[in-house]
Every structure is written in structure tokens, then in C-alpha cells.
């Protein structure tokens, strides 16, 4: 190994440790150049350090500026705030890129190759929420405030245009709901057209679609889209939809990119329903590791990893249960390593 790149490792909750072991085994086989600093967060952080985002974990990422992260559990309703959201805020990870590419041909939707860019730190995810009590009901009224800024919109839009162009994309589609949320999502739409005109009109086409129509179009004719860019909540929902087009959450990786740090993860959560059973599909996290290799300019290793996963799924027909196969996480991982 010619050089070593320090990186923070968070195995995560639920199926996290299982799919992270699988991913590390594959990265070892590839002789990936990372030297890992293992840390905890989420429920694991609460259990071992009494904190869903312990200071040691934050210090580690401040130092390495690079992390591979398993899914972190967040309690619904009450309880602590999402460690994922806090990590994005802490390191100003303003861009979330979630590619959806068909790896197993012959499914309901073939030849999908979409890029979803999601604004990652603003919008309705800021957690400005409160209740107004009326009489004896403490939760009589619920209020949430979304915040989108011109500067925040410019950050993600600029990243999305630049990245899409670099990856050879021909068209960007802004997804919004500016007919109803005229200010909150209107600012994003308006900024997209401004920026496109100023900087990118000669290199990529731009159009826009309302989020509800976008959902319908994605399931009737997803091939009409090339790259999508949208605000936080819409991006979260749409990227699960596009994951569904390519075989489900087990196949969808994500990159959280900021000025000073980058965190790579699977789109899916901790899958508590199958945790500890050794049957989770590690592909999404492995593909996230491939994005991380691309990020540190190890494109050859990234490509080898993607090819080995594709050959395992298609030539060897080794697949986990979510893809209709019967392979365990371990058997799938061994098959990928054999391909490497
Ligand atoms: P989930 O993504 O964990 O699971 C949804 C469904 O997909 C489940 O049936 C699960 O078994 C299946 N699934 C997910 N990943 C799979 C895989 N790799 N292989 C096979 N099947 C898989 O969503 P959820 O159940 O709504 O959320 C569980 C927890 O995860 C919650 O606490 C949530 O807050 C958290 N979460 C974390 C992240 C993250 O860390 N980035 C993202 C989403 C949800």
C-alpha cells in the first residue's frame, strides 16, 4: 500500500455491524488505502457512551474529515434527535448524492441510471417544531417551520450541476412544490434557474417538475429523467422511490458531501426487523464504500468493487433474500471477494 488515508468508521445500529463487517472484508480484499478509527453513534452511542453523538466521534471526523457510516437508529416521536441529521449539520454536509443504477437486468424497470441530489441541511429537517397545548391536550396543535436560504440553495445546486456535468449528464430536473409552498420551495426553483443561466446553460439542460407529478412520472417512465435536484424532505422520499426502481433499499448508496468533510452511507436504515439474523444485503454499504473510493480518487478500486458486486449478482447469481435469493450476508460477501 503506497499511502494510508485516515477515516472514521461507525458500524451503526441494527444490521449496521453485519453489513459493515462485510464491507470491511471487501475493502480489505481490495487493499483499499483507509486506516480506520472506529467510533460509535446512534443507539450504539447511547449504550456505550451515554450519548447518541459522543464528542470522541465528532473529534474523530473533525480530524479525518472522512467517514463510512452504518445506519443509525432514531426513535420516532419523542427521544433524542437524529444523529444523522446532527452529523450533517455539524459538518455542513450540504449535498447528498444518491445514485440509482440498475445492477440486475430484467427487473420491472431496466436500465435505470439516475442521480438524485438532495439538499441536506435545510428545509423541513431543521427540527423547528413545537406543539401548542389546548385545554387538557398538550399536543392539540403541531407546528413545523421549514427554512431554505438563497445561499444554501446555491451550495447544493452548484454541487449538483458541477457533479452531473462531470459525470456526463445531459439534463437536470429541479423537483419542487412551488405552486403551494411558494416561498419555501419557490426560492430553490428560482435560484436553480438563475444559476443555470449564469453558469451552466451551455453544458446541461434544465427543467422542473412538481414533486407529486415527479413521483408519478418516476414510476411510469423513469427514463425521461437524468439527474434530479431537490430540497431536503422531497429528496429523502424520492431517493427511496428511485432505490425501489433498482431493486430496493439494499442497492442504494449515498454520499453526504460538505466543504470540509464527507460521510458515506447506505440510503436504508437499521432494519431492526432483520437485525442479527445474518441475512441483510450489504450491497448498498459496499456501493457507498465505492463512492468513498471515488471521493479519494481511487477510481480503479471503486470500479473493480462495482464490477465484482455486479458479477456476483448476475454471473454467479448469488443474492440475498431481499433480491429473491437465499444467500446470507456472509455468503454474498465471500462471493464478492472471490470475484475481486
Ligand atoms: P429501514 O431502511 O431500516 O427498513 C425498511 C425495510 O427495508 C425493512 O423491511 C428492512 O428489513 C428492509 N431493508 C433495509 N435495508 C436492508 C438491507 N440492507 N437488506 C435487506 N433488507 C433491508 O427503514 P425503517 O425500518 O423505517 O427504519 C429503521 C431505523 O433506521 C429507524 O430508527 C430510522 O430512523 C433509521 N434510519 C436511519 C438511516 C440512516 O442512518 N441514514 C436512514 C433511514 C432510517
What does this structure look like?
The chain has eleven helices and twelve strands. The chain has 340 residues and is an alpha/beta fold. The chain has two domains: 1-91 and 260-340, Isopropylmalate Dehydrogenase (3-Layer(aba) Sandwich); 104-248, Isopropylmalate Dehydrogenase, CATH 3.40.718. The strands form two sheets. The chain has a ten-stranded mixed sheet, with helices on both faces. Helix 1 (16-29) links the parallel strand 1 and strand 2 (34-39). The longest helix is centred in the middle third of the chain and has 17 residues, at 150-166. The structure holds nicotinamide-adenine-dinucleotide. Residues 15, 19, 71-74, 84, 249-250, 265, 268-274, 280-281, 284, 322 line the site of nicotinamide-adenine-dinucleotide (NAD). Nicotinamide-adenine-dinucleotide (NAD) is lined by residues 15, 19, 71-74, 84, 249-250, 265, 268-274, 280-281, 284, 322.
Supply the key terms.
11 helices; Isopropylmalate Dehydrogenase; 340 residues; binds nicotinamide-adenine-dinucleotide; globular; alpha/beta
Gyration radius, to the nearest Å? 20 Å
Biggest pleated-sheet summary: 10 strands, mixed
Hetero compounds? nicotinamide-adenine-dinucleotide
Helix content: 40-55%
Element order: H for helix, E for strand: EHEHHEHEEEEHEHEHEHEEHHH
Low-confidence stretches are none
Quaternary state, please?
A: single chain
Q: How many strands appear in the DSSP assignment?
A: 12
Structural class: alpha/beta
The CATH topology assignment of the largest domain is Isopropylmalate Dehydrogenase
- Which architecture of the largest domain does the CATH hierarchy give at level 2? 3-Layer(aba) Sandwich
Query: How many domains make up the 3D coordinates?
Result: 2
CATH class categorisation of the largest domain:
Alpha Beta
Number of helices: 11
